[in-house]
Amino acid sequence: MDEQHVLAVDLGGTNIRVAVIGESGAVENRTQLPTGAEDGPDAVIGRIGNLINQVAADAGVAADVPVGVASPGPLNPRSGVVHYTPNLPGWRDVPFVEKLSAIVHRDVALANDGNCGALGEVQFGRARNIKNLVYLALGTGIGGGIISEGVLIDGKNGLGAEVGHTVVALDGPRCTCGSIGCLEAFASGWAIQAEAEHIATTADGDMLREIAGDRPIHAGIVAEAARRGDLAAKALLDRAGRALGAAMGSFINMFDPEMIVIGGGVAALGDLIMGPAKLAMPSHSFIDMRAGMTIEYSALGAHTGLYGAAALAFVQFGKVEGSIISR
Ligand SMILES: [Zn+2]
Fold first, then answer.
1. Considering the entire predicted model, what is its pTM?
2. Residue 137 CA, ligand 1 centroid: distance in Å
3. Ligand 1 centroid vs 314 CA: distance in angstroms?
4. Of these four, 42, 89, 209, 212, which has the most CB atoms within 10 Å of its CB?
5. Cβ contacts of residue 147 below 8 Å, gap of 6+?
6. What's the gap in Å between 172 CA and the centre of ligand 1?
7. How far is Cα 2 from Cα 41, in angstroms, rounded to an integer?
C-alpha cells in the first residue's frame, strides 16, 4: 500500500458496510453485514468493531490507520455521541466513538451521513477541487452538507446543515421533524410516497393504482405514471421540484456556492423533479450568485456512505497532505 488509506464505515438502518479506502478512491476489502438494529446499540457497535478488526486484519492495515464512520443523525461529531436516530431503535445519547474505540483501538471520527456526503463529493466525487459546495441527498429523507471556502459548516455542536428541514412553505405539509413545510415534507421519498398514496385513494388515482397493482406505491411508480402522462403524478412531482428549486435558491443566496451536487435515490427521477426545480430556482435566488454555478448529479452511487466516511477520516486525522478541508 503506497498511498494513504483509512478504514471507512457506512452505518445504515439495514446494513453495516466496511472497506479500506485509499486517498485516490480505491476501494478494497469491501464487506457488509445486516445491522440487526433491533438488538440495540451495544450489539450493533460490537458488530461494527468486529467487522473493522476483521477487514483490517484481512487487508493488512497498519495499527495507526484511523476509522471514519458515516451514521444517521442527529449526532455530535465533537463528543462522538449519537443523540437519536429514527432508523436505529433504542439509540438515545449513545457514546459511539468511546465504545467503538475501545473495540478497535484506533482513532475514530464520526459525522452524520449528510455532512460525510459533502466531504466525499469534494475528495472523491463531482466536486473535486471545489471549495464552495451545497450537497443534497434526496433519499427516504433529505440530508446534506455545506462546504464554504473549504470548511465544512456544521455549527457549534456539529448538528448543523439540516438542509432537508429548510422551510419552503409556511402552510405546507407536516414534516417528521415536527415542523411544517420543510423541503423534506415535499421532495423526499417518504413525502412523495405519502402524497401518492393519498392520490391513489381519489378519482385522480386510476393510473397510480393500475401501475402499482399489488405493490405499495413508491416514488418510482409515481415517476412511471408521470412518464405515461398522468396529470396527478406530474403535478405531484412538479410541486416537489418547485419546493426543491425554492430551497436551492435559498442555499445559493446564503452560501454563494460554486456547485450544487444532488445525490440519493430520488435524484434518479432526473428531469421529472429537477426540471421544475431548475425553473423555480431563479425566482428564489440572486442572479449574480447563480451565474457560473453548476448543478451536478452525484456519481458515487452505492459507495456514497463509504466514500463520505473515508473523506471524514482523511480530513479529521490529516492523512492527506494539502486537503482543502479543515476544521
Ligand atoms: Zn422537517
1. 0.94
2. 14
3. 31
4. 212
5. 118, 119, 122, 127, 130, 131, 132, 133, 135, 153, 325
6. 11
7. 36
pLDDT in tens, 229-253: 999 999 999 999 999 999 999 999 9
The model's pLDDT over 279-288, given as tens digits with 9 standing for 90+, comes to 999 999 999 9
Contacts of residue 179, Cβ cutoff 8 Å, sequence gap at least 6: 165, 167
Place of cell 455545506: 146
178 CB-near residues (< 8 Å, 6+ apart): none
Any residues with CB less than 8 A from the CB of 292 and at least 6 apart, and which?
258
- Quickly tell me which residue has 446494513 as its cell: 15
Distance 183 CA to ligand 1 centre (A): 7
Q: In 108-261, which residue ranges form alpha helices assigned H by DSSP?
A: 113-124, 184-187, 189-200, 206-212, 219-227, 231-255
Tell me which residues are annotated as active site: 113
Beta bridge partners of 27: 21
Query: What is the amino acid identity at position 89?
Result: P
